[in-house]
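re: ur question from yesterday

yeah so i grabbed the chain u mentioned. its 162 aa long if i counted rite. heres the sequnce exactly as i have it in my notes:
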Amino acid sequence: MNKPEVPASIWSNPIHFAAFGFGAGAIKVAPGTFGTLVGIPCYLLLQHLPLTGYLAVTAALFALGVWLCHVTTHDLGVHDHPGIVWDEIVGYLVAMAAAPAGWLWMLIGFGLFRLFDIWKPWPIHLLDRHVSGGVGVMIDDLVAGVYAWAVMYGIAVASGVA
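ran it thru and got these structure tokens back, copy pasting raw so excuse formatting
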């Protein structure tokens, strides 16, 4: 299956630009991984918020993502174009909710989120295939983020960090 081309509109349409992770999704190899990398500076900006504030901002970014992804998929005529990576940014933020401090934990969260996002265990695969529109683009990464968070929390508890 051929990957759809990266539309020129991502450089001229601010909605498409945001949905494509501020250009990270335009990278032809592993756009989801590069989109997740954009999540790291976002996390660094949010990590010092109280948990309720962090979760509120993450929820707002999820809601914004539903709209961004809906508009962009509609405009492009492609459901979940591989370059749309706003969902990876938010999924990573979900994975990092209440994470222990430090680069090691940021890398663990990154790896676990990418694992679940690519692997798509139940119900992620089901959601990815059967939910459409902006919600469909966002929901599978939300669940992948929750799975990554749960595993990382388990690691933190087992190691005595949490």
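noticed a couple things. The chain has a mean pLDDT of 95. also The chain has one domain: 8-158.
anyway ttyl
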